[in-house]
């Protein structure tokens, strides 16, 4: 048993799609979340900058005595997961490996598509992971730079969203039987994506797959939080304004939560 919280990091609020899955699958676990909304989105940024920012988020979570760190962001995982995992002595989980192995399980004709931010696609990490697990699978990746702005402007069900998703995904239609949603925001566009790709294409939500892996890991290392503790206090930190984070998060998670502002410079210089 290990009653310490699980730490989540993300470039902003998108990682809350992973948190929502955790709350559904593992409601007993306590959460510390940090979202770097002041510097979001990470997707269009250069790799070195993303690496530096991600380390700041990791170091902040380490000051919160977490038992595990979850990279609830595909872009941060693509750039920095391997090196952070190698440097820490607690488990570090990224969203990319769980999504990759779920796609391999799901594909029937070994044709997997991945949609993600420009940086995740540039890193080619999904193709590398999938091919390392099964070299006979073909991976086609597509950057969808217009999808995050669509979600963030409340357009998830609009006719503009349908038009943009249709135009963007056309090159993948008929070419893949399984499609990985390789960005935290994309589950919010899932109905439209499914509609454009057709009912036979299996969509993989990397975040949901990641929570299944977290569960396996907690059991394997016997580090679940005790069932006898019935009170838990999740805390969500944001590097930008508390009010807008709180509005989005409470609306998404359907519960009231505790949100605090953090300035990473100050938090990390107190060490
Ligand atoms: N969804 C996301 N980010 C936003 C947004 C949104 N604004 C409206 N909706 N803004 O991500 C990002 C910039 N903010 C973040 C907070 O600090 C200031 C800057 C996707 C959310 C994933 C859980 C639409 C919206 C919403 C509530 C729930 C879901 C949703 F308002 F898509
Ligand atoms: N969280 C990011 C991801 O999953 C999307 C938003 C961003 O670009 O920062 O790739």
UniProtKB/TrEMBL annotation:
Pathway: Cell wall biogenesis; peptidoglycan biosynthesis. It catalyses: L-glutamate = D-glutamate. The active site is at residues 73, 183. Keywords: Cell shape, Cell wall biogenesis/degradation, Isomerase, Peptidoglycan synthesis. Pfam families: Asp_Glu_race. GO terms for molecular function: glutamate racemase activity; identical protein binding. The keyword tRNA-binding does not apply. Its EC number is 5.1.1.3. The keyword Signal does not apply. One of its GO terms (biological process) is peptidoglycan biosynthetic process. Substrate binds at residues 10-11, 42-43, 74-75, 184-185. InterPro entries: Asp/Glu/hydantoin_racemase, Asp/Glu_race, Asp/Glu_racemase_AS_2, Glu_race. It comes from the Bacteria. Provides the (R)-glutamate required for cell wall biosynthesis. HAMAP family: Glu_racemase. Belongs to the aspartate/glutamate racemases family. This is Glutamate racemase. It comes from Streptococcus agalactiae LMG 14747. The gene is murI.
């Amino acid at each position: 048993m290990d009653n310490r919280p699980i730490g989540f990091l993300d470039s902003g609020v998108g990682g809350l799609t992973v948190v929502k899955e955790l709350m559904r699958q593992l409601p007993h676990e306590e959460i510390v979340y940090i979202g770097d909304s002041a510097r979001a989105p990470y997707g269009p940024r250069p790799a070195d900058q993303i690496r530096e920012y991600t380390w700041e988020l990791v170091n902040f979570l380490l000051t919160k005595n977490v038992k595990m760190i979850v990279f609830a962001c595909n872009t941060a995982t693509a750039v920095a997961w391997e090196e952070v995992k190698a440097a820490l002595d607690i488990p570090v989980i990224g969203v990319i490996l769980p999504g990759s192995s779920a796609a391999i399980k799901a594909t029937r004709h070994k044709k997997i598509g991945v949609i993600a931010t420009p940086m995740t696609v540039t890193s080619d990490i999904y193709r590398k992971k999938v091919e390392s697990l099964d070299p006979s699978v073909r991976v086609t990746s597509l950057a969808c730079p217009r999808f995050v702005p669509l979600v963030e402007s409340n357009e998830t069900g609009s006719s503009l969203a349908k038009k943009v998703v249709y135009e963007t995904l056309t090159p993948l239609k008929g070419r893949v039987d399984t499609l990985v949603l390789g960005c935290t925001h994309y589950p919010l566009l899932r109905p439209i994506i499914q509609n454009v790709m057709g009912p036979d294409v299996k969509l993989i939500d990397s975040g949901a797959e990641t929570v299944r892996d977290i569960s396996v890991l907690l059991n394997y290392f016997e580090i679940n939080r005790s069932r006898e503790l019935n009170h838990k206090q999740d805390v969500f930190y944001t590097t930008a304004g508390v009010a807008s984070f709180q509005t989005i998060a409470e609306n998404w998670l359907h519960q009231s939560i505790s949100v605090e502002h953090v300035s990473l410079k100050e938090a990390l210089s107190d060490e």
